[in-house]
Amino acid sequence: MTTTPVTGPTTAAHRAGLQLVPRPSQLAPLPGRFVLDEHTAVRAAPGGASAAADLLRTLLAPATGLPLPPAADGRIVFVLDPALGGLGREGYGLTVGADAVLLRAGAQEGLLRGVQTLRQLLPPQALSHRRARGTEWALPCAQITDVPRFAWRGAMLDVARRFRPVSFLRRFTDLLALHKLNVLHLHLTDDQGWRMPVAAYPKLTEVGGEPHGGAYTRDELTGLVAYAAARGVTVVPEIEMPGHVRAALAAYPELGNVPSRRLAVWDRWGVCENVLGVHDQVLDFCRGVLDEVMDTFPSPHVHIGGEECPTTEWQRSPDARRRAEAEGLSGPEALHGWFMGRIGGFLTENGRRPLGWTETGSDLPAGFTAVPWRSAAHGLTAARRGQDVIMAPYRSTYLDYPQSERPEEPPGQPGGVVSLRDVYDLEPAPAGWEPAAAARVLGTQAQLWSEYVPTAAHAEYLAFPRLCALAETAWSPHRDWPGFERRLAHHRTRLDALRVPGRPPHGLPHNASFTFPPGSGPSGTPGSPGEDTGR
Ligand code: ACM
Fold this sequence. Notes:
Chitobiase, domain 2, alpha/beta, TIM Barrel, 33% helix, binds acetamide, eight-stranded parallel β-sheet, seven-stranded mixed β-sheet, 535 residues, 2 domains
């Protein structure tokens, strides 16, 4: 550690170093800077701070080559102190002085968020995967107190329509963590693919993993869960039911409404009419699959889809009509709520909280956390019914829509544009809502559906920088669009150092290909687009 001459807090370099995304709750620049060198050591105070210190070391090693060894007299000090409970699970206090750095939190997650702030305070080269020689690793001095506005700050990846390798999921997890996002929601099954291995039903991935790429192994998924946990990110699994199941029906026709019928994994986009039957064997199947999902994913929440479920097959099926009658339902269309209630109840009995996409705000049984995707107003309806809500209205959070109307913008989901500003302007708990309803909003998440996203690099083009906007909306108490634009201009140099092929401010030329620069990201998985019918 070397102490350098004090510079005023208003120099350009100092200001650039403080351009944080998401914007912290409180930040006061202080004069001077703290420089890391080969002698800088880290002291993790007794009480569980060493995991966060390890993460800092791991994250900074590739670019800086600095050992940052543990030492009792280290000048970077990490303190985990339950007495700081007022900061919540994820809040932290960070003081960067010219002689020492002090990071304090009341819980592990807070220290992990503070580590990401330290990373952003360093020159952007610190984020590179390659050694950046000749850089001075200086942090501008500052006093930061930072507490997230919402507990749920996430992104969903649709790995069912297009399989993405685990290397991409790890890289994406790192990018989420950099932005203090804390949920990676994996959409693992759909009409066009089934990517979650289930030992009791091996044909799900044998048949359903065939199109567009493959399936994960159990070890890959448990490894991902641990990797994400070390970064303070929870992996939330989603298994779709009772609709969006054509891949499962291709593997096990007896789960359908016409057991003698043979269906292929769907090769079109859109809403498929084929849905699960409602006989006991189907409920056993869903419970068996979810048993293995719960074994793999410790997440308190488990998503079971629930949206876009046509009831035509149930109306036609004598068995389904009998089931509706036996359950005292008004008709086969009420089987959707019955089905979600049965499986949601199974999750609750097992100590998990069911999540479902809501179409109206009132279609999911009590006990579900509602994810309104069609309209923010449905969030209010669900919240008034006493349900927790994760806001995901497509006009603000669907990142498969193009980012502008410019003709050279690469094609995406037809029918609209979701601009950076649209994402930033989402208000997850609008001021006009009554306080009891607003208190039900856990947070928000972005959706990266993959019908129109053939490669992993294209996914990053769509995700960034819009995820930066979502992160600020979900984390920061400040609504500061001009400030966000300014800070983003600097933040782009961090994304460049990470070689994220995100959308540049004025888009890419038409027909640009989305490739990771050599030696950076994972290999993509090109796929054929199938017949486009709209979602
Ligand atoms: C959805 O867009 N299918 C939730």
